[in-house]
């Protein structure tokens, strides 16, 4: 099997299972998406979606968020974990967006990644899902599956992102990264997973892992 055949096969399975993919974090605009993605660090999307309505009930605008005491933000987002650092980041990035970007989330990689609490992965999610810019955010699900499917070495997320961008067409990235996330949660979890029962791993999985499972 060639690499092109593998890529085509994986894409076909994902398209069949997930012809449309909703953005898992509830939001109304780039700013609320940015805050929700920041909150999702080491927290489930389900929990974030349970917490953000309470935050938006106070404000969903950076010009107001920057004026809130950090303790108030922290108390609201506490269930998401890491609330001291996340609340400080939300307050400060709101100030920067309001005062330096006219109250609008910048549609710019460097400006996004310069915001407090915003790394490359968070910026990638915002650029792809809010602005439609081709990007391939790599979370733990994607990193794990790329290794299982022998699409990347699994050494680090930077390498995984580069490998996946080389493997798949640029126009597919924004939809594909969501498809892989949904597939990982439903069919290819971290624990209790049997590759031989998986729609993709059973056909396109890393041979060494399949052999180890079949011993």
Automatic annotation (TrEMBL):
GO molecular function, one term: metal ion binding
Catalysed reactions, as listed in the record: 2'-deoxyribonucleotide-(2'-deoxyribose 5'-phosphate)-2'-deoxyribonucleotide-DNA = a 3'-end 2'-deoxyribonucleotide-(2,3-dehydro-2,3-deoxyribose 5'-phosphate)-DNA + a 5'-end 5'-phospho-2'-deoxyribonucleoside-DNA + H(+)
UniProt keyword list: 4Fe-4S, DNA damage, DNA repair, DNA-binding, Endonuclease, Glycosidase, Hydrolase, Iron, Iron-sulfur, Lyase, Metal-binding, Nuclease
Database matches in Gene3D superfamilies: Helix-hairpin-Helix base-excision DNA repair enzymes (C-terminal), Hypothetical protein, domain 2
Note accompanying the cofactor annotation: Binds 1 [4Fe-4S] cluster.
Domain HhH-GPD: 39-186
E.C. number: 4.2.99.18
GO biological process, one term: base-excision repair, AP site formation
Cofactor: [4Fe-4S] cluster
PANTHER family: A/G-SPECIFIC ADENINE GLYCOSYLASE/ENDONUCLEASE III (PTHR10359), ENDONUCLEASE III (PTHR10359:SF18)
Physiological role: DNA repair enzyme that has both DNA N-glycosylase activity and AP-lyase activity. The DNA N-glycosylase activity releases various damaged pyrimidines from DNA by cleaving the N-glycosidic bond, leaving an AP (apurinic/apyrimidinic) site. The AP-lyase activity cleaves the phosphodiester bond 3' to the AP site by a beta-elimination, leaving a 3'-terminal unsaturated sugar and a product with a terminal 5'-phosphate.
Family that this chain belongs to: Belongs to the Nth/MutY family.
The protein's name in its UniProt record: Endonuclease III
């Amino acid at each position: 099997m060639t690499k092109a055949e593998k890529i085509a096969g994986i894409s076909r399975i994902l398209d069949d299972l997930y012809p449309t993919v909703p953005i898992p974090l509830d939001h109304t605009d780039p700013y609320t998406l940015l805050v929700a993605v920041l909150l999702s660090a080491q927290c489930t999307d389900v929990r974030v979606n349970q917490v953000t309505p309470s935050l938006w009930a106070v404000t969903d605008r950076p010009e107001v968020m920057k004026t809130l005491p950090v303790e108030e933000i922290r108390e609201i987002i506490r269930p998401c974990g890491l609330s001291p650092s996340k609340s400080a980041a939300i307050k400060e990035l709101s100030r920067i967006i309001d005062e330096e970007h006219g109250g609008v989330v910048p549609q710019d990689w460097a400006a996004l990644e310069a915001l407090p609490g915003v790394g490359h992965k968070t910026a990638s999610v915002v650029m792809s899902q809010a602005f439609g810019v081709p990007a391939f955010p790599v979370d733990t699900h994607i990193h794990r599956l790329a290794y299982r499917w022998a699409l990347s070495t699994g050494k680090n997320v930077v390498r995984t992102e580069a490998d996946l961008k080389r493997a798949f067409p640029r126009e597919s990235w924004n939809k594909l990264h969501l498809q892989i996330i949904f597939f990982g949660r439903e069919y290819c979890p971290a624990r209790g997973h049997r590759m031989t029962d998986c729609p993709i791993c059973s056909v396109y999985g890393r041979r060494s892992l399949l052999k180890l499972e079949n011993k």
